[in-house]
Amino acid sequence: MKFVLVLIVSLAATVLAVLDGGGIANAAGAMRSEDRWNPQHIDSLPAEIRSAIAPYARLCGGALAAEHLFARYLDKGDVKLVGLHFEHLRCGEHAKLCTAAGCLHQVYISTGGRYRLLKSFHTPELDLSEFRSAPAR
Predict the structure, then answer these.
(1) CA dist 25 to 6, 18, 35, Å?
(2) pLDDT grade, residue 115 (50/70/90)?
């Protein structure tokens, strides 16, 4: 009896997949094929951060685009941090962003208002949880 039930469920799933025309499979495939260098990863940044990194378009030789991990966020109550990982920025002049010390990383802070640059440095990795709240300038 158990075998018959498993067979019926398998047949039903097959029929649904055929009738669906591959829509479910296509939807799953679309998620895997996200554009690696999606400009939305730049466009979704706060305006003042987008303005601050705009000069990198000239350095990198074209419109800015980044991988998903380019920007990372941390909220600490009233303090919001945005960490930018330039190793995840598409750049034709990658050597200008990365050195032997590591790639460029920037940390922006907001304490209830606009974002401002808190720190810009070359390092192998950036951990936002290591940053303490800094007074607004």
Answers:
(1) 22, 11, 18
(2) very high
